[in-house]
Amino acid sequence: MQHIINESEYAYMVAVDNGRPVTTSMKVAEYFGKRHKDVLRKIKLMKCSPEFNERNFAPVEYIDSKGQRRPMYEMTKDGFIFLAFSFTGVKADAIKEAYINAFNWMAERLKTFDHRRNELSALYASGQYAASLCGKGLNGWKHDKRDLEEKMDQLEIEGQLTIPFLNFAREASNEVAA
Predict the structure, then answer these.
(1) 61: which strand partners?
(2) pTM (2 decimals)?
(3) Where is the Bacteriophage P22 Orf201 C-terminal domain (predicted)?
(4) How far is Cα 131 from Cα 57, in angstroms, rounded to an integer?
(5) List of E strands, 5-160
(6) Beta strands 57-63 and 69-75: pairing type?
């Protein structure tokens, strides 16, 4: 069977809401060539459990071309598959396959995105921790540096006092030897 929907359309067919791939009843109606009100009716008449319905179909609104609010559903992959069972025919089967591919494509993109975000977050946290240690180290160095510089200056002063003494002692010992 020839694919009637290209991968380039997947991002239009399936979007991301709260970190999960979803589509809308409007897009389903568009791709299956059905009237939106018929798709809404099918969703309302489905015989699935209330828990399944709540997890997979979220009532939302959209603004139509006249500026009026209209009902619509966002649905998960499972919700879409449940709804799509009622659509039959060769073309419907091809669209179901394309939608499943689109959901899988989006899920893979999310997984890759999450992996990259986790990697970058870990690098960021590591860098932040290292910078914090460096900041604490620099702050401690300010105090240590001042103390060490004072001690080095004091040692220099002491050294200057003892060097002439050593030179004097050397001269004195040379005179005694002479």
Answers:
(1) 71
(2) 0.59
(3) 114-164
(4) 46
(5) 15-17, 20-24, 57-63, 69-75
(6) antiparallel
